[in-house]
Amino acid sequence: MPTVRELDGSDAGGQFVRTALTLSVLKNEPVRIDNVRGDRPTPGLRHQHLAVLDTLAAICDADVSGAELGAETVAFDPGLESTDGATDWHGRGPGRLPGGEYDVDIGTAGSATLLFDSLLPLATVLDSQLTVTVTGGTDVSFSPPLDYSRYVKLPLLRQLGLTAAYEVDRRGFYPDGGGRVTLQLAPSSLEPIDLTERGALEGVRLYSTESASLADRDVAFRQAEGALERLSLDEFGLEVLERRETTVSSPSPGTAIVLRLDHGSGVAGFSALGKRGKPAERVGEDAADRLNRFLAESGPLRAPVDRHLADQLLVSLALEGGRVRVPAVTDHVASSCELLTAFGATVDIARTDDERAGSAEPALVSVESTVDL
């Protein structure tokens, strides 16, 4: 019987749970997570975390306990058949994962994009195409907006070898959610990641979205205008490579804007969500302010990716090894690195030479892909 890897989530949130479950499948190792979301005001599994657990359990036909709302202890055993016993993350030791078609209803405005983030790394151990249709929130707080996932993260992962695409039926804003998106994920082999420098700046792509109920107020247009007026385009010699304003169906009124910065070695994304009483122009300005701060960073240690992409790339980094310079060692970055280490990966975080620099300074995260089982 395989040894159960015991993890403590008392100082972490939902990201710790999602990442642990994904690593459990990739390594084909059973895990037990105690004190689930222990540092949150309401600990235990919420709808969106339970949806991730149930989805992975269905795909793997896993043995699970604690799959219920509010559960603070979860045990998960993927139980995949091993292949040739190799000792790496490529699926040659952890076993092959069957594909298939699955429908998931989160039941609230819980984030569909966070659920998809837990599935994307599984492409490296898939045996056939995996199709997952999720009903829930597509553009909600504390998670990547849909356009960030499909226009920032997914294109970068495709450059590394991932074969994946989204099909969007409708968007889901807070509070009703009700969005419907399908992920098509095919067996893939990733290239090692080497994102250590920000390349020459190329331009900005803008994606502004409004629900149909707000179309008569030109919200998507006004968000875009607010962003463009605030962006430091001339100062950095940038041009607008793409501008897309979209009106979408959704059970709840809502808006979102995503700005993508293209540079010689990759991309970075910055976003903002609309909310009642907030002028559309201000929503665009908020996203632009985040991009302007990123552009204003100077020196040889400028990160090529934004804070959120930095964290989301770490599991992919472990699959084939490599390096990524992160803008800061956020709590999510630190938590993910600790989990990778717990599962046997060799992780190194090299900070700036300035000993006074803290977690808010750039750091180079390196991961070796081959680990002992």
From TrEMBL:
The active site is at residue 332. Its EC number is 6.5.1.4. GO terms for biological process: RNA processing. Residues 196-295 form the RNA 3'-terminal phosphate cyclase insert domain. It is found in: Cytoplasm. Residues 12-343 form the RNA 3'-terminal phosphate cyclase domain. InterPro entries: RNA3'-term_phos_cycl_insert (IPR013791), RNA3'_phos_cyclase_dom (IPR023797), RNA3'_phos_cyclase_dom_sf (IPR037136), RNA3'_term_phos_cyc (IPR000228), RNA3'_term_phos_cyc_type_1 (IPR017770), RNA3'_term_phos_cycl-like_CS (IPR020719), RNA3'P_cycl/enolpyr_Trfase_a/b (IPR013792), RPTC_insert (IPR036553). GO terms for cellular component: cytoplasm. Pfam families: RTC, RTC_insert. ATP binds at residues 117, 308-312. It comes from the Archaea. Keywords: ATP-binding, Cytoplasm, Ligase, Nucleotide-binding. The keyword Nucleus does not apply. GO terms for molecular function: ATP binding; RNA-3'-phosphate cyclase activity. It catalyses: a 3'-end 3'-phospho-ribonucleotide-RNA + ATP = a 3'-end 2',3'-cyclophospho-ribonucleotide-RNA + AMP + diphosphate. Belongs to the RNA 3'-terminal cyclase family. Type 1 subfamily. Catalyzes the conversion of 3'-phosphate to a 2',3'-cyclic phosphodiester at the end of RNA. The mechanism of action of the enzyme occurs in 3 steps: (A) adenylation of the enzyme by ATP; (B) transfer of adenylate to an RNA-N3'P to produce RNA-N3'PP5'A; (C) and attack of the adjacent 2'-hydroxyl on the 3'-phosphorus in the diester linkage to produce the cyclic end product. The biological role of this enzyme is unknown but it is likely to function in some aspects of cellular RNA processing. HAMAP family: RTC. This is RNA 3'-terminal phosphate cyclase.
